[in-house]
Amino acid sequence: MSASQTERVAAALASVRERAGPPAPTALVLGSGLGQIADAVEDATIIPYTEIEGFPRATAPSHAGRLVIGRLHGARVAIVQGRFHLYEGHPARDVALPVYLLRALGAERLIVTNAAGALNASFEPGQVMLIDDHINLTGANPLIGPEEPALGLRFPDMSRAYDPLLRFAALEAAEAEGITLRRGIYVGIAGPSLETSAERRYFASAGGDAIGMSTVIEVIAAAHAGLAVLGLSAITNEATGGPDQEPDTIEDVLANAARAGEKIARLLGRLLAEGVR
Ligand code: HPA
Q1: What is the mean pLDDT of residues 165-170?
Q2: With contact defined as beta carbons under 8 Å apart, do 224 and 203 qualify?
């Protein structure tokens, strides 16, 4: 029989506990093109995924595949630099595994970032969207399987999956930094193909503002684990499905992720410096 998620988290924790040091109350998951945020961590302990018991390999472009623990703007943080995606073939429980490890390392809050296409026609590539809520259209859920009471409830509430206080703090930090922070609903799909134009119009009509291939599985796990979540999307391309819709290239996506990533780095810097730690 395969190991339970509870056993896998315990094994992963045992393999890093000594090096990980004191608890890290703020955890971050860095999305495509946003990995550079981890480079600013001071007194960093860097643990490659290959040294974490039971961790799969991260294979997505621009995902480093390491856990970085240290100090960022005065806050003690643990950063997952390189997440796992459904489109790589990882089952949802593998995608969720780092979230439970971060919880076991002392996380009380989780900041998730991602690269996303704009379903909302008023959004521009290079902008940042605060995730108010999500729609999980991946067809997957990390909690399917036997109940694991050591990790969380059988039927976790998702009505406040994105913490209202953290959202408020992010809006204030953006204003103080002079950053335009859009807000909206993130639609999560499995990928790896992008959406058809008809799908994009459909998702927008269903209330979606941004769309991507990550985040929703991790946020379900975070709600399960009792973590307060802040979600930020780097808007990398238009995804309106309108008549002037251009094909998307990974090069454009990563270039715009870097532009938005610079804003996300500043926003996080202010948030962490002002006590969201
Ligand atoms: N669709 C899905 N995922 C994405 C997109 C998109 O347009 N842009 C970046 N990630």
Answers
A1: 96
A2: no
